[in-house]
Amino acid sequence: MLPEAAHHPHNPALAHQFDSLEQQTEAATLGMWVFLVTEVLFFGGLFATYAIYRAWYPTAFAAASHELDVTLGTINTVVLITSSLTMALAVHAAQLAQRKLVLLFLAGTMILGAVFLGIKGVEYYHKFVEHHVPGPGFQFEREYFRHAQLFFSLYFLMTGLHALHMVIGIGIMLVMFWWAWRGTITAEYYSPIEISGLYWHFVDIVWIFLFPLLYLIGRHGP
Amino acid sequence: MPTVILPPRHYLNDGYGIASWLLTRDHKRIALLYLAAVTFFFFIGGAFAVLIRLELATPVGDLVTDATYNKLFTMHGVMMVFFFLIPVIPSVLGNFLVPIMVGAKDLAFPKLNLASWYIYMVGAAFTTYSIVTGGLDTGWTFYTPFSTVSSTSNVISAALGIFVTGFSSILTGLNFIVTIHRMRAPGMTWFRMPLFLWSTYATSLIMVLGTPVLAITILLVASERMFHFGFFDPALGGDPVLFQHLFWFYSHPAVYIMVLPAMGVISELVAAFCRKKVFGYGFVAFASLGIAVLGFLVWGHHMFVAGQSVYAALIFSILSFLVAIPSAVKVFNWTATMYKGSISWQTPMLYAIGFIGLFTIGGLTGLFLAAVGLDVHVTDTYFIVAHFHYIMVGGTIMGYLGGLHYWWPKISGRLYNEPLAKFSALVIFVGFNLTFFPQFILGYLGMPRRYHAYPPEFQVLNVLSSAGASILGVGYLIPMVYLMWSLRYGRLAGSNPWGAVGLEWTTTSPPPTENFAETPEVTWDAYEYGAPVEGHVA
Amino acid sequence: MWTGTPLFPESASTMAGRVDALYFFLVALSVFFSLLIAGLIVFYAVKYRRRAPDSVGAEIHGGLVLELTWTIVPFLITMVIFVWGASVFFAMARPPDETLNIYVVGKQWMWKFQHLDGQREINELHVPVGRPVKLIMTSEDVIHDVFVPAFRVKADVIPGRYTNIWFQPTKPGRYHLFCAEYCGTKHSGMVGEVVVMDPSEYQTWLTGGAREGSLASAGAKLFQDLACNTCHRPDAQGRGPVLEGLFGKTITLQNGVTMTVDEAYVRESILQPAAKVAAGFQPIMPTFQGLVSEEQLLELIEYVKSLQALPQVQAR
User: What end-to-end distance do the CA atoms of chain A give, in Å?
Assistant: First the structure.
């Protein structure tokens, strides 16, 4: 055992394989970054597919993109960016051991996340009603029919995967809320909040890319 | 000679009962959970291979129907690639050794490690379900539009099985990367690490960066099949060749996931059984990283006849030649290590020598394939089949068996029957070459892959190959017998039966659960066998 | 048993010798390096075998010069192979200007060959010796692949696209043709033969047998039946571009991009007319997706190819 460990009592959060809480925190942070890199590659394959088909069928993609609700999409973008703000505030509060604020901001993040998902659900419903869901019931102008269907396939897959990541993120926040409630999170041990925050910010960044690529094709001003 | 005794408390007797195994966080027990699983799936994949070779002994399809044959080679490939070759060395030997070699008590994330095993098992369950309920017939490569539009087999369940298992690979790689970065014992700098850790690190980079792309590709295939999305269907505006780009972007680096860990094992074996430092340690270490990086840039060499542009083909060709160089550098360095070594002919070294020879042949045939004008003739023929089996079986599996025999005393505390082990190594070597060398000739003759029936003039070579396969099969069964036997009746090994140098040999055999009573402080380079420096080569 | 076992394929095309030369070079290189490495490791294993149980190996420090040597020498060798392989590949990828064109449609699990003057063959392809032949290929369903080992040629046959290969046969005979991309149940049954004939025999074969008229004439009839002629008129009064003399020319599209009018462009213009509209024309052509088969597309393409430029060329 390293000499220091004999003198300092273990933080109950220290796992047995680590020599110090600092090592544990560094390992957890590196682990989350590596995981986020895998997520970049994961979404990256989808973005690459999108890029290729958009390059091949620009007018059809623009026509399909115009059928998306830019207002709802913009609201969702603002909602998600705000939730990243509340997340960052939660991390900050955790560093300062302000338990009530941590709980408040975590709750805010979760609520905003739920609002995002709700609005997404409304959008999906609209697409269903307008027969823009790919499959036998799909309807679109004859000229762009096939490629618009491709656009909507990508739209549902990309936003659907993103939404799934949001759901998982809300689940993680629930666990963080519970830990903060219980007092597991302290000024010394707040790294779980921090790395959960990394995940949440990542999911936000994916949306920042999705929004213009899906909603704003060809919508430049005069 | 002092009598060897088992340590009173070690990881195998530290808790009994099924729960102590299924809920373990000990990386060594998790390694054994993987060992049981991958061995089981290896023999399933091997059974499919036996049926394939039996069918191919005659030119007509007389053993199974064509539809069944297509399922046999598909399932052989799927089982062997995703459930054996990719996980075997990282999840069995890597899991067992990485913490011990860095001087730590466990990996960075032990619970995640256990989760990786469960994820692997869930994926395997999905895939096994798809086998027993009718099978998969798309080839392990799932090319579209056949897999999305035409196949009537269990594509979605098999694809989801592979999708799930991919996460096991990603999380294992993540665990290794963080462990190697953050948990090395004091004094263990990067350049004091054993080369097995360098290979494992490079492999983990590939696992973490490449596997997600396979995951999304599989998701695209499954969603196209379920919801008729049309990403790869020309009738709906999609491009079937796009699938190939996405698929091979992972699956080429995947072959380096399969061979890099074996190369890491070979470095350890050569050092231990020549009792000297690996020649050119730094070059071997960087060669591993070089292979990992370059391996991501060559995927188009699987598509030289698939309709990509001439210029794309040439770029992929030149990069494919470049990726061969670091592998050649490693072979030369291992050979040079043997110069003036103190070489023991024990079983692990026989496997290491076998690896070097067979990997050299397999790698050289890769040059044939990188040369585009020649690849046009041999791609999609048995030449390719022979090439990748030389690397994966002559390479990876021999590396794995060498490592398994080398570290068996550490893992189990027992010694296996050495004459029988040498005999099996010989049987495997002979059987392997008889199985796969004729396939190079068959491929240049023009026998395509995945053929159930073939022109009669190809029969003699096929019979030779099938005969070799039966010998190879026997060769793989014998170690099962004597290794299991040794668990109960083998001589006790003691902490260092080979007289090797490495942190793992400073612990008891089997090691205690926490590996080290005290965190070691490392003040020596890897493979310090202590001989006075005899010479400098320019 | 051994008499019927060839160990090397027949060489029956102008390309075969070039491919084989590269192959033999690589075989020699591989034998050399395999024997070198195998020889060294066996030699060292014997010469330096452990004699005393406690003996260790000598510690020899590696050096930069040796490492660089065995990095740079393999690099140079591989670059030679690269250039050689690339030059063979360029020759394969560039058919000569004058080729005998034959259309190929692959479908599960058979090959349909269409000679320009109307001869149709299934799974058997007759070609004359000594002339370059170009196969223009597409698939009706999944990806297939045309592979003729004796000619050393291979190319995937892809749905929705045309791919091509060319070869010049050098010896009359019958040669295997295999499908070399797994395509389902009867993949190993999707085989055929290329029958290479002396030129005079080939002519006899061409003119004999039942034919339905050339591809181009079938295309002409289809052009009328589908009413293409109402917009594509030879007198530039139609709502669509004049097709006479158009095939092979470079045109400008609405968005300013230039394109060569080749088989792929004609096919796309029939199936997705709005994709690449010629400059100066409206995107009003209806799509014929689902109304024409792959073979009918080939007939229309051959018809368009056959339309010569008219004597009085109107300025466009």
Answer: 70
- Output the DSSP codes for C167-221: E-B-S-EEEEEEE-S--STTGGG--EEEEEE-HHHHHHHHHSS-----HHHHHHH
Query: Is the distance from CB of B456 to CB of B466 less than 8 angstroms?
Result: no
Mean pLDDT of chain C: 91
Is the Cβ–Cβ distance between B505 and B444 less than 8 Å?
no
Q: Among partner residues C9, C71, C156, which is closest to B307 by beta-carbon distance?
A: C156
Among C94, C109, C135, where does a domain finish? C94
Nearest to B464 by CA among C149, C188, C1: C1
**Does residue A68 form part of some domain?**
yes
For residue C273, the distance in angstroms to the closest alpha carbon of chain B comes to 14
Q: Considering CB atoms only, which of B174, B186, B231 is closest to A153?
A: B231
Lowest mean pLDDT among B248-257, C3-12, C127-136: C3-12
Q: How far is C4 from chain A (nearest CA, A)?
A: 50
- Residue A191's CATH number: 1.20.120.80
Question: For chain A, how many structural domains are there in total?
Answer: 1
The answer to whether residues C198 and C230 belong to one domain is: no
Q: Domain ranges in chain B?
A: 18-505
Judging contacts by C-beta atoms under 8 Å, the chain B residues touching residue A43 are 216
pLDDT in tens, A72-115: 999 999 999 999 999 999 999 999 989 999 999 999 999 999 99
Please indicate if any CB of chain C lies within 8 Å of the CB of A141: no
pLDDT of residue A167: 97
Structural domain boundaries enclosing A44: 18-216
Between CA A90 and CA A102 the distance in angstroms is 5
Structure tokens belonging to residue B524: 């020596």
B224 to chain A nearest CA, in Å?
Answer: 9
Q: Reduce the DSSP state of residue C159 to 3 states and report it.
A: strand
Query: In terms of CA atoms, which chain A residue is nearest residue B242?
Result: A49
Residue C9 has pLDDT above 50, yes or no: yes
Window 459-488 of B: residues touching C by CB (8 A cutoff) are 459-461
CB atoms A153 and B227 under 8 Å: yes
Interface touch B70/C185, C-beta < 8 Å? yes
Residues C161 and C198 in one domain: yes
Does this model's pTM top 0.90?
yes
From chain B, which residues contact A within 8 Å (Cβ)?
A: 99, 104-110, 170, 174-175, 177-179, 181-183, 186, 208-213, 215-217, 219-220, 223, 227-231, 236-239, 242, 246, 249, 514, 518-519
Q: List, for residues C271-308, the tens digit of each pLDDT value.
A: 888 888 888 888 888 888 888 988 899 999 999 999 88
Best mutation target among B151, B372, B384 (most C Cβ atoms within 10 Å) is B372
CA distance C178 to chain B (A): 7
pLDDT of B538: 52
- Taking an 8 Å cut-off on Cβ atoms, the answer to whether B67 and C55 are in contact is no
A3-21: average pLDDT: 73
Q: Span A148-155, mean pLDDT?
A: 93
Architecture of domain B18-505: Up-down Bundle (1.20)
State whether ipTM is beyond 0.90: yes
Co-location of C249 and C290 in the same domain: yes
Residue B146 DSSP class:
I
Across the interface, whether the CB atoms of C188 and B240 are under 8 A apart is answered: no
> b or e along B471-506 (b: 16 or more beta carbons within 10 Å of the residue's beta carbon)?
bbbebbebbeebbeebeeebeebbbbbbbbbbbbbe
Residue C124 sits in the same domain as residue C29: no
Q: Does B496 touch chain C (CB under 8 A)?
A: no
Low-confidence ranges of chain B (pLDDT < 70): 1-2, 531-538
Of A17, A44, A146, the CB nearest to B104: A17
In a domain, A12, yes or no: no
- The CATH code of the domain that includes C174 is 2.60.40.420
**For residue C316, what pLDDT is reported?**
47
CA atoms within 13 A on the CB side of B225: 25
d(CA A87, CA A112): 10
Q: What is the CATH number of the domain that holds C246?
A: 1.10.760.10
